[in-house]
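Hey team,

Filing this mostly as a record. A colleague (T.K.) asked me to run one chain through the structure pipeline before their review meeting, and I want the input and output archived in the tracker in case anyone asks later how it was produced. No errors, nothing strange. Just documentation.

Input sequence:
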Amino acid sequence: MGSQRLPGKTMRLVNGRPLLGHLLDRVRQAKGVDAVVVATPESSVNDVVEEFCKQEGVACFRGSEDDVALRMLGALSMMEATTCVEVYGDGPLIDPALIEECLQEYRTGKFDLVGNDMKGTYPSGMYNEVFSFSAFKDSVERCSDPAVREHGTLFLRQHPELYKTLNIEAQGPLCRPDVHLDVDQEEDFALIAAILEHFAPRNDFTLGEILAFLDANPELKESNSQVHRRWKQYQRTA
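Output structure:
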């Protein structure tokens, strides 16, 4: 709720439902996700998030505003999680199939973290990570840099000498790093709203369907292309 560039974005309404609700609708469809917890800051502006979670029957953890890693650790500890899935609050259109893809690869037992966000191949807003609680807890205990802790699993991802990680790259028509489906600014919200309104009342549309809709409406697709994405500095380019 305290976003500097688009305050209150989590609870902004599309089709009478907040973006957080649309995100929960998508995550709940992912096979293999047993429970959901929303990790939100302690500040009073986020009371509305906690109240919405109560209405939805979803667990809510309140933690540090700036120390995202610590907030995540608290939420996962509360849920007694062992295998953890992270999706981002600014990606309300996350395709459940992409969560399942990361889960499947993680369950081979070869990696501490599997994600599709370490290199930009999927559209932003489709990113997720699956990781072990023990590896994440270890990374939080090792990391003392507030700038890194602000980005949750970043320390874990930055240290291949300590943790085994895998990035899943998009293939074929889903490899569209030119498309941005995360909500940072007003232009992003307008695009996401247009997509949700187009597919309503469905909430099971796929990434492929989203891309087909945007390709058929190029002006809409390009409407948020100039928004600066601060997180890109942490992605690999090769």
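Quick notes for T.K.: The chain has ten helices and eight strands. The mean pLDDT is 94.
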